[in-house]
Structures are given as C-alpha cells and as structure tokens.
TrEMBL record:
Alphabetized PROSITE patterns for the sequence: GIY_YIG
Protein family membership: Belongs to the UPF0213 family.
Protein name per Swiss-Prot or TrEMBL: GIY-YIG domain-containing protein
Pfam family, any one: GIY-YIG
Residue intervals of the GIY-YIG domain: 2-78
Length: 95
C-alpha cells in the first residue's frame, strides 16, 4: 500500500513556509534541496523539512494539505512545534 505525505518545508531562517503533498517524500525533498523546479520554493530557498504527516488515502492527504494552507502562520508554527520543537531538518534523519 502506498503512503501519501503532507509536509511543511521552510528556509534556513524559518521565515517562509511551503505546504505540499506527495507520495514520495524523499524524492520531493531532494527536488527542493536541488532547486529542480521554478517557483516559490526555489525563489525563497525552501529546502528544510520541518513537519510531515503520513496518510494511506490520497484524498485525505490532499484535504489535510488544503486545511493547513488555509491556516495563519501562528497555527502552522504551533503544528510544527508539536512534533519538532527546534525546527530541525527532518529530512536529515529520514533519508
């Protein structure tokens, strides 16, 4: 069974947040770290994974992504801190 991930990534100063969904978190973070695609994450150097959640169902993952994207910055910070108090790069530990 395939997993789906909702994740929040940021830059090294934690000044911007990017919320995304993917079925391959390791590949997606490599893409962010290597700036393979034009857009927000390349422009703002978003390449540090600070939060992720695993889903079995893609519809649920997309729903969670949309919900988080609608939140204010403070609520996103609280979510990140609930699992990653120091805003460490989780991709270093996972991959």
């Amino acid at each position: 069974m395939k997993n789906y991930y909702v994740y929040i990534a940021t830059n090294w100063k934690n000044t911007v947040f990017y919320t995304g969904v993917t079925n391959n978190l390791a590949r997606r973070m490599r893409e962010h770290k290597n700036k393979l695609f034009e857009g927000f994450t390349k422009k703002y150097n978003v390449n540090k994974l600070v939060f992720y959640e695993v889903f079995k169902n893609p519809i649920e993952a997309i729903g969670a992504e949309k919900k988080i994207k609608g939140w204010l910055r403070r609520k996103k910070i609280d979510l990140i801190k609930s699992k990653n108090q120091e805003f460490k790069d989780l991709s270093d530990e996972l991959f």
